[in-house]
Amino acid sequence: MKFKQFDRKIMNPLATDFHLYKMFASQRYENGELRVTAVGPSFQSLLAGAFDQIRKSAKGNLAIVLEMLNVLQTIASLTAGLGRRKSLREQVERIAELAGRTIKSPHDRDRLETRLAEVREAPERNPLAGPSRHGVDTP
């Protein structure tokens, strides 16, 4: 299977503006003849579409931040590809950066730091914490 990367603008149904999504074309051949070219968004683009707007709106809201971390950890538990896991780690760090700037309560900051430590720890339990053991990656 070959992947050809190109850019396409599509409308994010949750946003009022256009977002640039990286798209991948997967070509399938039968007996040496091109039969299908399937085009779809990349994993990184899907993550951005799912989390960027929510993260930007979550300023100072610990409940939303913690829920986003829970969802990312669940996705990570089902993700083996190195590139995908890197994208998940980047989302976690973006959330951590925003929360670090906007969550003021010492109690809430302690809860946040505890949850971030849990999400980042133990590669065997949590793929966000380290490289894939499988070495499999797809866009």
How much of the residues is beta strand, in percent? 15-25%
How confident overall, as mean pLDDT? 77
User: Mind describing the biggest β-sheet?
Assistant: 3 strands, antiparallel
Radius of gyration: 18 Å
Question: What spatial order of strands do you see in the largest sheet?
Answer: 1-2-3
Number of helices: 4
Number of domains: 1
Query: What string gives the helices and strands in order?
Result: EEEHHHH
Question: SS-based structural class?
Answer: alpha+beta
Number of strands: 3
| Outline | elongated
Helix content: 40-55%
Low-confidence stretches: 1-21, 132-139
Distance between the termini: 12 Å
Write the layout of secondary structure elements.
Elements: E1 2-11, E2 18-30, E3 33-41, H1 43-57, H2 62-77, H3 82-102, H4 106-120
Antiparallel strand pairs: 1-2, 2-3
Plain-language structure description:
It is a single chain. With 139 residues, the chain is α+β, with helices and mostly antiparallel strands. 48% of the residues lie in helices and 23% in strands. The protein has a three-stranded antiparallel beta sheet. Strand 2 and strand 3 form a beta hairpin. It is elongated and about 65 Å long. The relative contact order is 0.14. The model is unreliable at 1-21 and 132-139 (pLDDT under 50).
